Amino acid sequence: MASSLTCTGVIWAFLSFLCAAASCVGFFMPYWLLGSQLEKSVSFGTFRRCSYPVRDESRQTTVMVEQCGRYASFQAIPSAEWRICTVVTGLGCGLLLLVALTALMGCCVSELISRTVGRVAGGIQFLGGKCSCWGWMGI
Questions:
Q1: For position 64, what pLDDT does the model report?
Q2: Which site from 17, 41, 52, 67 is most exposed, i.e. has the minimal number of CB atoms within 10 Å?
Q3: In a 3-state reduction of DSSP, which class is residue 87?
Q4: How many structural domains compose the chain?
Q5: Is the residue at 74 inside a domain?
Q6: Looking at the domain assignment, is residue 5 inside a domain?
């Protein structure tokens, strides 16, 4: 198959894909913060949580749900800052993945990526990396 990328471009495409994949996996995994509550280990991230407390109104107690899952709704994310972090990190991961998949297609399709497209993709990738970093740092 013909490629529109140089050797450096092919390396950039594969490294971009690896970085985008690592960012997306990190975004979806609930192991950002680890701790314990009610003598159970708990963990959560911006998008998911594991072993979380829920108020049982019938018994008037707090029980631990020992499973992993997404928050029930966007409003169920603990704070406004955490919601912003989720959106910014998700946007960054999406941009990184878009550029990485486009670059990988450039490895197989001739004349898909020109010098101008490569520069624009690099700028989008830079913005995606910045968004991901801002989200990880909690803005």
A1: 78
A2: 67
A3: helix
A4: 1
A5: yes
A6: no
